[in-house]
Amino acid sequence: MSLSSGTRWLIGALGLLALLGAAFLLRQALSRTRTAAQREAEAASGWQTQLSGYVDLLNQEDGRITTVVATAPAAHPERFTRQMSRSAWRIESESNLTDLTGSAQAATFPPSQIHCALLTYRYTTDPDRNVPDDHEVVLLAYHPGAGETGWVGHRIADPTDEAQTQTVLDAIGCPLQRP
Hints:
Elements: H1 5-60, E1 64-73, E2 87-93, E3 96-99, E4 113-123, E5 135-142, E6 151-155, H2 162-172
Antiparallel strand pairs: 1-4, 2-3, 2-6, 4-5, 5-6
């Protein structure tokens, strides 16, 4: 039994159409993967942008010189709770820090990533305050669904409460070595 030329043409056309459809779907899948990878790469560097902006704003206040001494990723960001955050903020522009403490914008807990940063302060206008122990730890946490960038800064304790700071750092697995 032989197929007519019209039937063979129809089968060939359907095969070609199926092949083109599969190629289109593959291209769309690869495009989405690349876009997700690009978003992930942008998210990975967002903590550095927030930290730099925060340091810049601190340096504009009262003659303070703020230095980032060390940073480290936390091993267990899923252990960070809302109760561990004394205050939350996001840098919106070069000169604008938005206080997010108690805000719904930072409500997604736990964060999926945390970077810990040890900061030291020197006060050029008040030499008596230039002591080696003037330091603070801040956390930069990626909260999925928390606005455009998702990165939120957290102060975890009063800078003088080293025991509370260490408790939070131990809980989230942050290996910072403080002076």
